[in-house]
């Protein structure tokens, strides 16, 4: 009984790995995305990642 249970688990694991691999391959074979729905901004604003403050200066002096 133990042997048949182990064999079943081995076969089930192999089967699920094969099915998952095939599903991943099929998912990757889909159409490439088009950029027709892509929105591109024309904002004149410049992106500011951080503002120089006392806390940032202390952080950078410690981090170096």
Give the overall shape, derived from the CA principal axes: elongated
From the alpha-carbon coordinates, what is the Rg to the nearest angstrom?
Answer: 27 Å
Q: Please provide the count of β strands.
A: 0
Query: In percent, how helical is the residue content?
Result: 55-70%
- Structural class by sheet pairing and helices: mainly alpha
Mean pLDDT level? 81
3D architecture notes:
By secondary structure, this protein is mainly alpha-helical. The chain has helices spanning 2-28, 54-63. It is elongated, with a radius of gyration of 27 Å. 0% of the residues are buried.
In short:
The chain is mostly helical and 64 residues long. It has helices at residues 2-28, 54-63.
Topology:
Layout: H1 2-28, H2 54-63
Summarize this structure as a short list of keywords or feature phrases.
mainly alpha, 64 residues, single chain
């Amino acid at each position: 009984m133990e042997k048949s249970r182990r064999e079943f688990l081995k076969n089930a694991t192999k089967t699920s790995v094969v099915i998952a691999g095939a599903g991943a391959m099929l998912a990757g074979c889909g159409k490439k995305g088009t950029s027709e729905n892509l929105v591109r901004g024309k904002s004149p604003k410049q992106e500011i990642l951080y503002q120089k403050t006392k806390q940032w200066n202390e952080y950078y002096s410690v981090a170096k």
